[in-house]
Design goal:
Elements: E1 5-16, E2 19-31, E3 36-40, H1 47-55, E4 63-64, E5 69-72, E6 75-76, H2 82-88, E7 93-96, H3 100-103, H4 110-120, H5 127-140, H6 146-149, H7 159-170, E8 177-181, H8 189-206, E9 209-214, H9 217-223, E10 226-231, E11 234-240, H10 241-246, H11 251-258, H12 298-302, E12 308-309, E13 315-316, H13 321-326
Parallel strand pairs: 3-9, 3-10, 7-8, 8-9
Antiparallel strand pairs: 1-2, 1-4, 1-5, 5-6, 10-11, 11-13, 12-13
Helix pairs in contact: 4-5, 4-7, 5-7, 7-8
Length: about 325
């Protein structure tokens, strides 16, 4: 079955005084209708840049490199004009941005900001119908007294309520695909759980596919059907969420899992991943994780390490995957 979203060999570069920074390097990923896929990794690994590329929002002077492909329901998006992309953005693809305080306009009532997408895409027949649709959306995401809160401004809401407003705005035109860029960042655990329950309900009831970006592998493993792990702009492992968490096949994934505290589980100090991310302006020819990896050999550094299919159906970019899983 053809995926709803198909990303193939996506590469994104930004010019810097020290050279061209490759923020995303040859990423390939699929999301099927009704599926929840997690994109995880530490800060700076390129996760949010992938979402911005899908939305056609890579800021200048950054650019998507030739040979990259982003297809929605079989339609190539990278070749669209800015005007044509506006017809896709918000209508076929919705996005929940990371920080609601910067994503929302502080000088506009929240109801008008949710209505904006309906107006741009002419989703409703009249202004009254648009207002009614906004009230339904606000109630659907758990905002009480929607009619009174319609004229309220962002500073009158808590962080959790603002995140709900962003979700309502992203769902305004009932898109088939929802991109969620760390939607629970800076929220307390109670509000985190409420936001994730809301997204799960949207996924189940509307069959909306979700591509979730997170640095929290535990959260992603609980919420997602599949997980793709990113490191230095590349996907290093992908597969079913529970399987990736239970038996990681890449040393980087193993390191992420090893950093997770376990309630009532192992004792002693958590083991951090040694070292730091490589310089993205001078990525190595071979595995970008080699200098931080206890399994690394000359073979890892000598040539590119492509994703390969394991016998259990997972994909991993590691020549020592079997050794990693063995211990």
């Amino acid at each position: 079955m053809e995926p709803l979203l198909a990303i193939e060999n996506l590469s994104v570069e930004f010019p810097t005084p020290r050279g061209r920074l490759r923020a995303v390097d040859g990423v390939s990923l699929t999301v099927h209708a009704g599926e929840v896929v997690g994109l995880i990794g530490e800060s700076g690994s390129g996760k949010s840049t992938v979402l911005l590329a899908v939305m056609g929002l890579i800021p200048k002077p950054g650019r998507i490199l030739p040979g990259s492909s982003v297809r929605l329901k079989g339609r190539e998006l990278t070749c669209l004009s800015p005007r044509a992309y506006r017809n896709v953005r918000g209508y076929e693809i919705g996005m929940i941005f990371q920080d609601p305080m910067t994503a929302l306009n502080p000088s506009m009532p929240i109801g008008e900001q949710v209505r904006e997408s309906l107006r741009v895409h002419r989703y409703c027949k009249s202004r009254a119908e648009e207002r009614e649709r906004v009230l339904q959306l606000l109630e659907a995401v758990g905002i009480a007294n929607a009619a009174q809160r319609y004229r309220a401004y962002p500073h009158e809401f808590s962080g959790g309520m603002l995140q709900r407003v962003l979700i309502a705005s992203a769902l305004a035109c009932n898109p088939r695909l929802l991109l969620a860029d760390e939607p629970t960042t800076a929220l307390d655990v109670t509000i985190q759980a409420q936001i994730l329950d809301l997204l799960r309900e949207i996924n189940r009831e509307r069959r909306t596919a979700i591509l979730l970006v997170s640095h929290d592998i535990g959260l992603a493993a609980e919420f997602c059907d599949r997980i793709a792990v990113m490191y230095a702009g590349r996907i290093v492992e992908s597969g079913p969420a529970a399987q990736v968490l239970a038996e990681p096949s890449h040393p980087y994934t193993q390191g992420l899992v090893g950093c997770l505290p376990v309630w009532g589980g192992r004792r002693g100090r958590l083991e951090p991943i040694p070292g730091t991310l490589p310089d993205l302006t001078h990525l190595p020819i071979g595995c970008a994780f080699a200098d931080r990896c206890r399994f690394a050999s000359d073979e890892c550094r000598a040539q590119p390490v492509p994703l390969r299919l394991l016998s259990d159906g997972r994909e991993v970019s590691c020549v020592k995957a079997e050794e990693v899983m063995a211990g």
